[in-house]
Amino acid sequence: MGSPGLLRLRGVVKRFGSFTAVRDIDLDIVEGEFFTIVGPSGSGKSTLIRLLVGMDEVTEGEIWLRDKRIDKTPANLRPTCMVFQSLALFPHMTVGQNIEFPLKLRKEPQDKRRARAEELLDLLRLPRSYYDKRISQCSGGERQRVALARALAFDPEILFFDEPLSALDYRLRKTLEKELKDLHARTGKTFVYITHSLEEAMVMSDRIAIMKEGRFEQIAVADEIYSAPVSRFVAEFMGEVNLFPLSAGADGRIASDALSVRPGMRLSQLTPGSGGLLMVRPEYVRLAGDADGFDFSLKGIVHGEYALGSRIQYEIETVNGMVTVEKLREDRLTATEGQTLVLGFNAENTHFIGEAA
Amino acid sequence: MNRLDGRLGFLSALPLVLVLLLSFLAPMAVVALFSVMPQKVFSIANMPDFSAYSLFFSQGYYKSLLWSLGMALTATIILLLICWPLAYAMAKVFGRFGLVLTVAVVMSLFVSENIRLFGWVLTLMKGGLIEGHLRAWTGLSFESPLYDVPIIIFGLVYVYLPFMLFPLAQGIAMVPDDTRQAAYDLGASRSQVLWQIEVPLAAPGIVVGSLLTFVLAAGALAESKILGGQAVIAIADDIETAFTFGQNWPLGSALSMILIVIIGGLALFGVSKVDLDAIMGRKR
Fold it and tell me: How far is CA A345 from the centre of its chain?
């Protein structure tokens, strides 16, 4: 295998009895990247990470780390380590003892251990006085940092994360997401992160993999996944989206039940005689008095208005069902509920998802 | 408001406190009083007389105490060793079968301890269930293991197994699976996980189980009487004899006081070291 990947999965399958949790996964994780696996619960992402860490054994397939095959290596002999969802800190040890745990197992001398622990406390912006604190005296965010420090003390080739931020409140989560990204940049380690939160994935990751029913639907950088999803599932999973069925006649002319299409309009991905879904994100839908100047347009009645903080979301009832539109607060609509409007958007802001997907 | 709550709490606890004082502390006070009474006197108002305590040393009762404590300690250690894997399986592996095991173990408590011990005598004695069958079928014979110290310890282990097993299983159930896996993931071997994670985190269960079995075994007398045939005398046996055949209440009371102080001190020390609230599930 001449692949440059630090961690390589080839045909990895995990079955529990008759249930297949992970189906034939191939994956290459590049050294130093922040790779996030996103999926709804039950998508197999937790099972996959347990296979990668070594807490479960693969049913079929191979896992390679650099030039060593590791799928039969137990977790305690793998040079990787994981930050647990529960953090799994040792409650009977102090912060310092927790951080030094992997070093103590390697029989490093005490002064070296202590020095390293203090370095890590500095790195994670915890005061050095925390060395002697009990875990129960630490707040949620501090525990998070202690768990990270402990994992970094292990000095893993790859650091895995199993939704460690999911139990925290919104503000703290936002802060820690940025800190984690920053920590990734400063340590240069390879991070593999799993989460069910699109936002978390978008903020931190270099690349994102969308997982569904034990398979990857799409692996790409965040922007691409957002603007060019390969399937309806990915499009809907990655935030609010509007989808319109389209088809093309034998002559390439676009036909749609819901949309009025600008005459002569063509979509390059839409081959004659095929069909699919046209995707447009809520922030690209314009609201106007008439259809002039839009590639695609339709009529709708304002149904509801929801404040999202910096943005306002509108639900607009159309023949295609509810269409979601978002405006910045400063561009707030003057329209009121029940008013009829024209919704329009242009081809360059859309993405076409072919029939098969 | 808080002060009112506090006072009401105290008042509502008062009846039970009185019952406890009367039923636990009062008998102990009486025993303490008896222990400093001169012999063959039946009035309360005497000068304190510690001659009963001196008998403890001069007449060799300290040997009984040492035997009792020694056998209790041995039984406790053996119980810890055999109950750990069983308790571990009950807490983490067996699932529903654990309930079956619990019921089976608890059922044995429904039969009187003496009857169960006599059952063992019939099983183990010369010409009994095992040796008798063996001799009838093969002509081979062996000496009965009865009436010796090891069989007494066996009896203690057998009788007090539930008192170690259940607290231990409770203690092991308190060890989060995640911490075990995390330690393993950080490079710990199985034995390192056991000694550095599981034992410290299950400590409340270990302490409670050990205390229960040790305290009960140190005060036990049926095992040494029935299985041991009084090969060695347990301190509880001495105490009973002093009160009954001996009609020497000061001696019986003095021996009781010595046992109470030793075991009470040990229990208080043990309980002060562990978080009882944690094992009762009041925390976390």
Answer: 27
